[in-house]
Write a structure and sequence with these properties.
Elements: E1 19-21, E2 44-46, E3 67-69, E4 91-94, E5 114-119, H1 123-127, H2 139-142, E6 148-153, H3 158-171, E7 179-184, H4 187-194, E8 204-209, H5 222-229, E9 233-238, H6 245-251, E10 256-260, E11 281-285, E12 294-295, H7 296-301, E13 319-323, E14 332-333, E15 346-350, H8 361-366, E16 372-376, E17 403-407, E18 427-431, E19 438-440, E20 451-454, H9 456-461, E21 463-466, E22 469-471, H10 475-478, E23 481-483, H11 490-495, E24 510-511, E25 518-519, E26 527-535, E27 550-561, E28 567-570, E29 574-575, E30 581-583, E31 589-597, E32 605-612, E33 618-628, E34 632-642, E35 652-655, H12 667-681, E36 697-698, E37 728-729, H13 762-783, H14 797-802, H15 827-831, H16 839-848, E38 856-857, H17 869-872, H18 881-884, H19 893-898, E39 902-906, H20 908-918, E40 927-934, E41 940-950, E42 959-964, H21 970-1001, H22 1004-1013, H23 1019-1024, H24 1031-1042, H25 1048-1052, H26 1059-1067, H27 1077-1083, E43 1087-1089, E44 1097-1099, H28 1105-1128, H29 1132-1136, H30 1139-1152, H31 1168-1190, H32 1194-1197, H33 1217-1224, H34 1226-1233, H35 1237-1251, H36 1272-1296
Parallel strand pairs: 1-2, 2-3, 3-4, 4-5, 5-6, 6-7, 7-8, 8-9, 9-10, 10-11, 11-13, 12-14, 13-15, 15-16, 16-17, 17-18, 18-20, 19-21, 20-23
Antiparallel strand pairs: 21-22, 24-25, 26-31, 26-33, 27-28, 27-29, 27-32, 30-31, 32-35, 33-34, 36-37, 38-39, 39-40, 40-41, 41-42, 43-44
Helix pairs in contact: 4-6, 13-35, 21-26, 21-31, 22-30, 28-31, 28-36, 33-34
Length: 1305
C-alpha cells in the first residue's frame, strides 16, 4: 500500500501483528528506538521506498520475521549488528539501497533463501574508512540455504575490483543457489566463475562483465533493458576489446546477450555465433567498430571447432536490437545458410548512420517468423529491400510480419519496393519520412491491416500506384488511418494494441499518472502562451517527446489557499503536449512552446512547480508566460537542474524574475521562499549525491590520503589556530580508517551542488574531463620514473623554442584531446626569441605578470624578517649597500628610498619555515628576496637577488645566504641567470597562495552562504550570484587532482606538499577590507592618497598596467554596486531590518570564515555604506581581480623557460662538476635545473585550470539574460555599467598600442 506517514508511535503494542506495510512513505525518516519491541509475531515487514537512515536496535525483537523488504531506501547506508538476531528470516531485500557495508552478523541469518543487496553509492569510502570488509568473507559459508543472491554494486567501485575474487570463493558454499545476479569487472574473473560447480546448476543468471564508464544520460531505453533482464540467463559484456574465449563460452548457455560498447569487434561472428544455440535476445549498443552481424568470411576462416561455414547460426534468436552503431552497414556480409535467424520475431535498428538497406534476398527467405520491424534514425536508408537482378518477386515474402515502424528516415523513398511482401501485416507506422511520398497498393494489400499511423500532412499528400500505374487511394485505407497525436508518447502509440486505437482520434483528457488530476484542453476561454528553454544531453532521444513528460503548475502571488497554510494557490498540472519544438544551433538546447487555458483563480503567477517525468534530468534555463490577463508577459530565470520525478526529490519551486526584500515578499510566496532556503541548507547530515542541491560547510580535511601511506597524511586546514582556513562545500561524512579527522577521498567525482556543475559551457566541462585523464597518465609517468633517472629532453634553448609538443595530445583509451602548446611563447618572445632572459623582461613580469599584487615599496634597509628569532634565529638580509648602490643611476641608497624608487619582492618569510622539509623532497628551493629599482623611463631593473637556506646546524642559528647581482659576461652572468630562475621558482610557488587562496578558497564561503541564506528573490543574491559561476566546481576539481596529496602541485611546484600549509599561514594575514584594491595599494606602498589624482590615488609606478586597468574596473564596479544597492536600500534601517541579509553576513563571518570570526575589521552590516563596500569587494575578488591578473598573463605562465615551477638542484659550488658545466655549457646547466618535460605539462594543467578563459564566460558588464530584472531604473544603471566597461576595454586596447608604455606584457 502507498503511505504518507511522517512519524511513527514510540512503542506500539501489537502482539498478534503478522504483517506491517509502511512502504512508499517518502517523508518517513526515522523509526523510534523502541518501535519494534512489542511485535513478537511479525512475519512480514516492508519499509521500501522510505527515507529512513537507520534501523533501531529493537529490530532484534522481531524473532519471527520471515520477509524483510527495504527496497529503494537510498538514505540507508548501514545495518545494525542487531540484524543478526533475525534467525528465521528467509527473504531479505535491500535492492536500491546505498549500503557501504554489510555487518558480520549477516552470517547469522542461516535460514535465508533470498538475499538482495545494493552497494550502489559509497562503498569505496567505507573501504578507505573504518571497515576492512564490505561483504564479510565468512558470511556465505553460513548461508548455505540461499537459493537466490543478488549483489548490485556501483561499476566504478574500486573495492569490488579488489574483492570480487573473494566473493567467488564464497559462492563455493552456496550449493542450493539457483538464481544469481553478479557483476564481474574483468574477463579473468569470468573464467573463474565458469569453473565453479554451481554454474551449471543455475536456472536464472544475470551476469555483467567488464568495466563500466559513467554516462551523464543513458541512450538505452529503460523498457528495452527490462526486456533483456526478463530472460533466464542474461550476459552483459561492456567495454570489451578483442576476442575472449570466456565470453564465447558463457554465450553457449545464455538466453540473452547485451554487448555494450565493445571497442574492436567488427561483427558478431567473432563471438562464435554458431555456438549461441540458446540465445533468444540480442542487444547491441554503441559498438562503433561493428559493421555487420553475420560475416560469412569470418565463419569460414575460424576453424577452431571445425568447418562451420555451412551450418545455420542464431537459430533460436527471437529478438535483435541494434542501437547507435556509427559504422554498422548491414546485417549480413556474404551468404547466409538456410535456417539461420529463422526464429527471429523482432528486428529493431536505431541510429545507424551508415546503414543503407535492411533486407537482402537471402535474409528475407530466412525471416519466416519475423513479426515486427522497427527502423529509426538511419539517414542513409533509401530502400528497405536491396534488389539485385535477377530476382523473383513471388519468393520475397515476410509471411509473419505484422508490424512495421519507420521513423526518422529522411532519405527513404520506398518501403517494400512495390511488392506484396507482407501478406499478414496489421500495423504500419510512418513518421518523419519526407521522401516516402509514393506507396503501392500491393505494399498495403494485407487483409489483416488494421491501422496505419502517420502524420496527417504526410497522409494527405501521399501518392498511390499499382501495377498499371498511378491510382487513387484505396477506399478501405481511409477508415484505418490514425493521425499521430502530439499529446501522446510516440513509442506508446507504436506499441499499443491496435484494437484499442480509435481512428480519427480527437484530443482527449490527459491524465497525469502521478497527480491523477485532469487538465482540460478545450477550445474557448482565456489562453496563455508558455515557452520553456531547456538544455538536454546531446544523447537525448526524440526531443519532440520531451514536453509530454514535463508538467507545470503555476503558483499565485496574490491568492492564498487556506487549505494549504495560506500559501499561494497552486494551479492544476499542465503538460506540453503539442509539437512546438525549436532547436538552436546547439543541439542540446531545446525550446518548448504551448498554449494553456488560464485559471482565473491564480491571478498573478509568482512562482511555478515543474515536474520532470522523463528518465533523465533536464536543465531549465528560462520560462516565459505571455498574455497573462492584467500582467502581459512574466519571465522566470531558472538556471537549474530538474531531476526525474521518480527520484522522489522535493518539488522544485521557481520564482518569477521579480526582486523582493524579505519583508516585501507577497504573503502568498513567503512560505515558499523560506522552504526553498531550508531545502538548500539541508540537514547537515548524510552522504551527498550527484543530484543533490544542498550547500553546507566543511574544513579542508580531504587533501590527504593517510590510508594509502603515512607520507600522504595532510593536516586539516580550518578549525584550528595553527591552520586557519576558509570553509569549503561539505561532501562526505565518512572518515579515513587511519585518521578519523580526515575525510575519505572518493574514486568518483567530488560532490558539488548540482546547479554548480558546468552547464553553460560544454567546452569547459570537456576541458576538465580531458585534463583529468591526462593528469592521471602524467602522474603515473612521474611515479614510475625514479628521481635519479629523470632526465631533461632539452640541451639548448633552441631545443625548447623548436619543441612542438601538443599539451593535450595524450592518448588515453579512445580519447585524444588537443588544444594549445605547452611551450607557449608570449608575443615578445616570438618577436625576440631570448627576450625572456633579459632583466627588463624579468622585472616587467614581476610588475605586470602572474601576480602583480605581491611586490611592495622598499622602505627599510636592509630588509628585515618577522619570523620569531627564538625559533629561526637571525633572518636579517645579507644584502648590503655595496651590492646595489653602484646601480642606482647616481642616487645614494638613502635618496632612492626617500624618493620611493626602491621596491622588493620579499618571499623570504613565506618560505623559510618550510625550506628544511621542502628540500628533503625532489625540489631544491631557496627563500628569496629581490630588490628592484624604478628607472626614469618608468621601468624597473633588478639590483640584487638573495638566496637563503636554513642553517645546517639548525633553525635557531638563522639563515645562510648568497647575494647575486646582475652581470653581463662569463660565469657570473650564468650565475645571475640561475638566480633569476630560483627567484622565479620561489615566486611561482608563492603564486599558489595569492591565486588559490585569494581567488578561489576565500570566495567559496561567500558562494555557500549566499545560496543558503539569500533567496533567489533577494536583491543581493541577484547582484552577487553571476560572479560565483563555476567557483565550487573548479575548487572541487583542484582538491581532487591538483592540490591533493601526491597531486600536481606536489609533483611539479617548489612548495611540494607544504603549499597548502603555506596558504593557511598566509590566511592568518588575510583581512577582508584590505582586499579592496585602493586599500591594498596603499598598504603595499604602491600608491598614496592624492585628491588631485584621477582615482584619488597617486601611483608610484604610473606605467603599471594591471593597477591602472584594475583601478578603472574597481571604480566601475563600485559605481554599479552603489546604484544597485541604493535602489533597494533607501536607508540604513532597511539594511538592519533585512533578516536574510543579516543571517547571510552572520553565517559568512561565523561559519564560512569561522577562524576569523572574532576579528574586529569585519564590517558590521548596519549601514548602506558597509553593504556597498562589502559587495564591491566580493565582486572584485570573484571577477575583477581574477580577470586583471589572470587573463593578460595566461600565455606567460605556460612558457616554462620563462616561468619554471621547480628547481631540481642548488646553485653550483666552485670546484664541482655542476659548476664546470655552468662554465662550459650554461644553457644545459639551466635546463638541468628547472622542470622536466612531464613536470612542465603537469604544471601547465594547474595553471590552465586556474587561469583559463572560456568563450562561454559572462564578463563584467554583461548578463547571461537580458531580462535578469524587471526594474527599469536598474536596467538603466546596468546599461551605464556596461558602457563604462566597454570604454575601459577600448582604453586598454589603446594603451596596449601605445609604444610609450613599456611595462605592458
Amino acid at each position: 500500500m502507498n503511505n504518507k506517514l511522517t512519524d511513527l508511535p514510540e512503542r506500539p503494542i501489537c502482539p498478534n501483528l503478522r504483517a506491517l506495510y509502511l512502504q512508499n512513505s517518502d517523508d518517513l525518516m526515522e523509526i523510534p528506538t523502541t518501535f519494534f519491541e512489542c511485535m513478537p509475531a511479525l512475519q512480514v515487514l516492508d519499509l521500501s521506498y522510505t527515507s529512513i537512515k537507520s534501523l533501531p536496535q529493537s529490530i532484534s525483537k522481531l524473532v519471527s520475521l520471515r520477509e524483510f523488504l527495504l527496497k529503494g531506501c537510498e538514505l540507508l547506508m548501514k545495518l545494525p549488528p542487531e540484524i543478526g538476531a533475525l534467525r528465521n528470516l528467509e527473504v531479505f531485500d535491500l535492492e536500491g539501497t546505498e549500503l557501504i557495508c554489510l555487518p558480520k552478523e549477516i552470517g547469522e541469518l542461516i535460514n535465508l533463501t533470498c538475499l538482495k543487496v545494493s552497494f550502489y553509492g559509497y562503498a569505496n569510502l567505507c573501504k578507505n574508512s573504518q571497515t576492512d570488509e564490505i561483504i564479510p568473507k565468512t558470511a556465505f559459508s553460513k548461508l548455505t540455504r540461499l537459493k537466490e543472491l543478488s549483489i548490485d554494486v556501483n561499476p566504478d567501485d574500486q573495492w569490488w575490483d579488489e574483492e570480487a575474487n573473494a566473493i567467488l570463493d564464497g559462492l563455493f558454499w552456496l550449493i542450493n543457489l539457483k538464481t544469481l545476479n553478479l557483476y564481474l569487472p574483468t574477463v579473468e574473473l569470468l573464467k573463474r566463475f565458469l569453473q565453479l560447480k554451481i554454474y551449471p546448476a543455475l536456472s536464472h543468471l544475470k551476469l555483467t562483465v567488464g568495466h563500466h564508464d559513467q554516462r551523464i544520460i543513458s541512450r538505452l531505453p529503460e523498457k528495452l533493458e527490462m526486456k533483456f533482464k526478463n530472460f533466464d540467463k542474461c550476459l552483459k559484456y561492456k567495454n570489451g576489446k578483442g576476442k575472449t574465449i570466456e565470453i564465447t563460452e558463457a554465450l553457449k548457455h545464455s538466453s540473452a546477450f547485451f554487448l555494450d560498447r565493445h571497442w574492436t569487434v567488427t561483427n558478431l561472428s567473432e563471438f562464435q555465433i554458431h555456438e549461441m544455440k540458446q540465445l533468444k535476445f540480442c542487444l547491441l549498443l554503441e559498438c562503433n567498430e561493428m559493421q555487420t552481424i553475420i560475416n560469412e568470411a569470418n565463419e569460414k576462416d575460424n576453424d577452431e571447432y571445425g568447418s562451420k561455414g555451412d551450418k545455420p547460426v542464431l537459430t533460436s534468436l527471437e529478438h535483435l536490437h541494434i542501437l547507435y552503431m556509427k559504422n554498422f552497414k548491414s546485417i549480413l556480409e556474404g551468404r547466409i545458410v538456410s535456417s539461420s535467424l529463422s526464429h527471429l520475431k523482432t528486428l529493431a535498428i536505431h541510429t545507424c548512420p551508415k546503414l543503407t538497406t535492411i533486407f537482402t534476398l537471402d535474409l528475407i527467405r530466412n525471416f519466416v517468423n519475423l513479426e515486427e520491424l522497427i527502423v529509426e534514425d538511419c539517414p542513409k536508408i533509401k530502400r528497405l529491400i536491396s534488389l539485385e537482378p535477377p530476382f523473383l518477386g513471388s519468393n520475397l515474402v515476410l509471411r509473419s510480419l505484422k508490424k512495421v515502424s519507420l521513423l526518422d528516415l529522411p532519405e527513404l523513398i520506398s518501403m517494400f519496393s512495390g511488392l506484396e511482401i507482407a501478406p499478414v501485416l496489421e500495423v504500419m507506422m510512418i513518421y518523419n519520412c519526407p521522401k516516402l511520398n509514393d506507396l503501392s497498393t500491393s505494399e498495403v494489400s494485407s487483409k489483416n491491416l488494421k491501422v496505419i499511423k502517420g502524420e496527417r500532412e504526410w497522409w494527405g499528400e501521399l501518392k498511390w500506384h499499382n501495377l498499371r500505374g498511378s491510382c487513387c487511394q484505396p477506399d478501405h485505407l481511409v477508415s484505418i488511418f490514425v493521425p499521430l497525436r502530439w499529446d501522446r508518447d510516440l513509442m506508446a502509440q507504436l506499441t499499443e494494441d491496435p484494437a484499442a486505437v480509435t481512428p480519427h482520434g480527437v484530443l482527449e483528457t490527459i491524465i497525469s499518472e502521478n497527480e491523477n488530476k485532469k487538465i482540460k484542453c478545450e477550445i474557448g476561454g482565456c489562453k496563455i502562451k508558455v515557452q520553456v528553454m531547456l538544455i538536454t544531453s546531446c544523447d537525448y532521444g526524440d526531443k519532440t517527446l520531451l514536453g509530454e513528460k514535463i508538467s507545470l503548475q503555476l503558483i499565485s502571488a496574490v491568492a492564498c489557499d487556506p487549505g494549504n497554510e495560506y500559501r499561494g494557490k497552486i494551479g492544476q498540472p499542465a503538460f506540453f503536449v503539442t509539437k512546438n519544438i525549436y532547436r538552436g544551433i546547439d543541439e542540446t538546447r531545446t525550446t518548448l512552446s504551448e498554449t494553456f487555458d488560464w485559471d482565473e483563480e491564480i491571478g498573478v503567477p509568482g512562482a511555478f512547480i515543474m515536474k520532470n517525468y522523463n528518465d533523465t534530468e533536464l536543465y531549465l534555463e528560462t520560462l516565459t508566460i505571455e498574455d497573462v490577463p492584467g500582467c502581459g508577459r512574466i519571465h522566470f530565470v531558472c538556471n537549474s537542474w530538474v531531476c526525474p520525478a521518480i527520484l522522489r526529490k522535493p518539488d522544485r519551486v521557481f520564482f518569477t524574475n521579480q526582486t523582493y526584500l524579505p519583508s516585501e515578499t507577497p504573503a502568498a510566496l513567503r512560505q515558499y521562499r523560506e522552504e526553498e532556503l531550508r531545502k538548500l541548507r539541508g540537514d547537515g547530515a548524510g552522504m551527498r549525491r550527484r543530484r543533490d542541491l544542498v550547500y553546507d560547510y566543511a574544513c579542508y580535511n580531504d587533501l590527504g590520503d593517510p590510508d594509502k601511506d603515512s607520507k600522504y597524511v595532510h593536516p586539516v586546514l580550518g578549525g584550528s589556530i595553527e591552520f586557519p582556513y576558509p570553509r569549503r562545500i561539505r561532501t562526505s561524512p565518512l572518515s579515513t580508517k587511519t585518521d578519523p579527522e580526515s575525510e575519505s577521498r572518493p574514486w568518483f567525482d567530488i560532490y558539488v551542488p548540482r546547479d554548480e556543475h558546468f552547464i553553460h559551457n560544454g567546452l569547459q566541462w570537456r576541458f576538465l574531463d580531458g585534463a583529468e585523464e591526462c593528469i592521471k597518465v602524467l602522474l603515473h609517468r612521474l611515479d614510475s620514473t625514479p628521481q635519479d633517472n629523470i632526465t631533461n629532453d632539452f640541451n639548448t634553448f633552441e631545443d625548447v623554442l623548436n619543441k612542438e609538443l601538443d599539451l593535450w595530445r595524450f592518448e588515453y583509451g579512445t580519447r585524444c584531446l588537443s588544444s594549445g602548446n605547452p611551450y607557449q611563447k608570449s608575443k615578445a618572445i616570438r618577436e625576440k626569441k631570448l627576450s625572456w632572459r633579459t632583466d627588463e623582461e624579468f622585472t616587467r613580469d614581476i610588475l605586470a605578470g602572474l601576480d602583480p599584487v605581491t611586490m611592495r615599496r622598499f622602505e627599510e634597509f636592509p630588509p628585515t624578517s618577522n619570523l620569531d628569532p627564538k625559533v629561526y634565529g637571525n633572518q636579517r638580509s645579507s644584502i648590503s649597500k655595496r651590492h646595489i648602490e653602484n646601480n642606482l643611476d647616481g642616487l645614494t641608497l638613502e635618496k632612492a628610498i626617500e624618493n620611493r624608487r626602491l621596491f622588493i619582492l620579499d618571499l623570504h618569510d613565506a618560505f623559510m619555515p618550510y625550506l628544511r622539509r621542502m628540500n628533503t623532497t625532489s625540489t631544491r628551493t631557496y627563500a628569496t628576496r629581490t630588490i628592484l629599482f624604478l628607472q626614469n623611463d618608468g621601468t624597473l631593473k633588478p639590483l640584487a637577488i638573495e638566496l637563503s637556506l636554513p642553517h645546517p646546524r639548525g633553525d635557531q642559528f638563522g639563515a645562510i645566504s648568497q647575494v647575486c647581482t646582475p652581470a653581463e659576461l662569463g660565469v657570473q652572468h650564468s650565475i645571475w641567470q640561475l638566480a633569476k630562475s630560483y627567484a622565479t621558482v620561489n615566486y611561482i610557488g608563492y603564486l599558489l597562495i595569492s591565486r588559490w587562496l585569494n581567488n578561489n578558497a576565500v570566495i567559496e564561503p561567500f558562494v555557500i552562504a549566499t545560496n543558503r541564506q539569500l533567496s533567489v528573490l533577494h536583491p543581493i543574491y541577484k547582484l552577487l550570484h553571476p560572479h560565483f559561476r563555476d567557483i565550487i566546481q573548479i575548487n572541487a576539481f583542484a582538491r581532487k587532482l591538483l592540490l591533493n596529496a601526491d597531486g600536481v602541485l606536489e609533483k611539479t611546484f617548489s612548495v611540494a606538499e607544504f603549499g597548502m600549509e603555506m596558504s593557511a599561514a598566509a590566511y592568518k594575514d588575510w583581512v577582508f577590507p584590505e582586499q579592496a584594491l585602493p586599500v591594498n595599494l596603499i598598504k603595499r606602498g604602491m600608491a598614496f592618497e592624492d585628491s588631485n589624482s584621477p582615482h584619488g590615488l597617486r601611483l608610484l609606478i604610473e606605467d603599471n598596467p594591471c593597477v591602472v586597468d584594475g583601478l578603472k574596473i574597481w571604480l566601475a564596479i563600485k559605481a554599479w554596486v552603489e546604484d544597485y544597492c541604493s535602489f533597494y536600500y533607501r536607508s540604513d534601517d532597511t539594511v538592519r531590518k533585512d533578516s536574510e541579509l543579516q543571517s547571510w553576513w552572520k553565517e559568512l563571518r561565523e561559519v564560512g570564515h569561522g577562524d576569523k570570526k572574532d576579528e574586529s575589521w569585519w564590517p558590521q552590516m548596519q549601514t548602506r555604506k558597509e553593504l556597498m563596500d562589502t559587495c564591491t569587494i566580493i565582486i572584485w575578488m570573484a571577477s575583477g581581480l581574477h580577470a586583471t591578473i589572470s587573463f593578460a598573463s595566461y600565455h606567460y605562465a605556460t612558457y616554462f623557460a620563462k616561468r619554471p615551477t621547480i628547481s631540481r638542484r642548488f646553485m653550483p659550488e666552485p670546484g664541482t662538476p655542476e659548476y664546470a658545466e655552468l662554465e662550459s655549457n650554461p644553457e644545459k646547466a639551466l635546463l638541468e635545473t628547472i622542470n622536466t618535460p612531464t613536470q612542465i605539462i603537469l604544471a601547465n594543467f594547474l595553471i590552465k585550470v586556474l587561469f583559463r578563459q572560456f568563450s562561454g564566460e559572462v564578463y563584467l558588464g554583461q548578463s547571461d539574460t537580458p531580462e535578469w530584472t524587471t526594474d527599469t531604473e536598474l536596467l538603466q544603471a546596468f546599461e551605464r555599467f556596461r558602457k563604462n566597461m566597454a570604454d575601459i576595454e577600448q582604453g586598454i586596447k589603446e594603451m596596449n598600442n601605445d609604444k610609450k608604455l613599456k611595462n605592458k606584457v
